[in-house]
Design brief:
Layout: H1 7-14, E1 32-34, E2 40-44, H2 49-54, H3 61-73, E3 80-84, E4 91-95, E5 101-105, H4 110-127, E6 131-135, H5 137-144, H6 150-153, E7 158-160, E8 173-178, H7 181-186, H8 190-208
Parallel strand pairs: 2-3, 2-6, 6-8
Antiparallel strand pairs: 1-3, 4-5, 7-8
Helix pairs in contact: 3-8
Amino acid sequence: MPPGGGIAALAAAAAHCTACELAGPATQTVFAKGSPLADVVLVGEQPGDAEDLAGRPFVGPAGRLLDRALDAAGLDPARCYVTNAVKHFRFRLVDGAGGRQRRLHVTPDLAHLTACAPWLQAELAVLDPTVVVALGATAARALLGPQVRVTRDRGRLLVRPGDPAEPLRRRAGWWLVTTHPSAVLRAEDTDAAFAALVADLQVVRAATVP
């Protein structure tokens, strides 16, 4: 972990991270995208297949849906910072059409969240945002622990205490839990699920726009 570095320094160091076994089969570390001055940080679970290949988070179908939801909520995607709780793609190989293998997403374990926690904590310390949004259950667990439930706690601001030891760098702010965009894509009623995600993000906008 580079001492006193910014986001670029963290990303460069994370490119060489081997804190867990996921670094082996993954194509590369997928760190983050967005403004280092962002007042809103969105945290997903882990990169998917498209993100692993591109080296950037949320560039596949879930990312496009997230951009639509942010826009509908009045939040400029270019002014947000998007990252994941786990920086490497966890997958298993399955047989696909024509005998070709494809990589199927596997949910990260607690060990993977623990291994990546220093990176996520360092990102939040540098960014010091007003609102940190947990996209889905894995991100919520990484940020807030197992006591938080997306279905129960979504869409409301939860106090994110400041750090008395670093009053200028760790101001008080908010957590907000909502669904992951990929869950919206899988929902039986995608329109209703999308509207619910937008409503949650409108709460974020209200907390960050004077």
